Amino acid sequence: MNLSLKMYGTPILREKAVEVTLFNSDLKTLADEMFKIMYEARGIGLAAEQIGRKERMFVIDIPPTSDLDQNGQRENPEVKLPEVFVNPKIISHSESVQKGIEGCLSFPGITAEVDRWYEVSAEYQNLNGNKKIINAKGLLARAIQHELDHLNGVLFIDKISPVKKILLDGKLKKLLKETKKTI
Length: 183
Ligand code: CO
Hints:
- By secondary structure, this protein is α+β, with helices and mostly antiparallel strands.
- It contains 3 helices and 7 strands.
- The strands form 2 sheets. It has a 5-stranded antiparallel β-sheet.
- The structure holds cobalt (II) ion.
- Cobalt (II) ion binds at residues 104-106, 146, 150.
C-alpha cells in the first residue's frame, strides 16, 4: 500500500465514510498502515479518510502518560490501547463538556480549543467484526469524538468559536494553498 496523510483541502476529508462489511486481511493491512502513518506523524488518532480511504474506521493510541486528569490520575486505566474502531457509534455521553486544545494530523502546526463531552460510551467492531463497547473519559473520549467526526466529514475547525476561527484564518488559507498544489 502506498498511502499518505491527506491534508486540509483534500476533498475526501469532507466526505462521509462507508460502513465496513468485509472483515478480511485487507482490513487488517489497512489498520497496520494507519498505525504506521499515525506513529510516524506522532499522532494519537487517525481516521481512514486521512489517508484517502473511505472505510468507516479509525485507530487510537494514547500513551498512559497522556491519559491523566488534572490531578495526575489515570482516566482510563482499564482500557487497552492501541485499538482499531470499525463502524463506531456513540451510544451515550455525559452532559458535561470539557475544553481542551486539539490538533489534527491533517492540520500540521494548527491547534485550537474545542469543547467535547467529558465522557462517552461507544459501540464499535474490532478487526474480526466482533462488537465491542468502550467507556472513555478525558483525552480518550475527546479522541473518539474527533475521529468519529472525521468519518462524517466534520473537522475540528468546524467546532471552534467564530472569533477564534478568524485568528486561524491566515494559517488555514496557507495550508489550503499548499494542499491545492499536491492534489
Ligand atoms: Co483529525
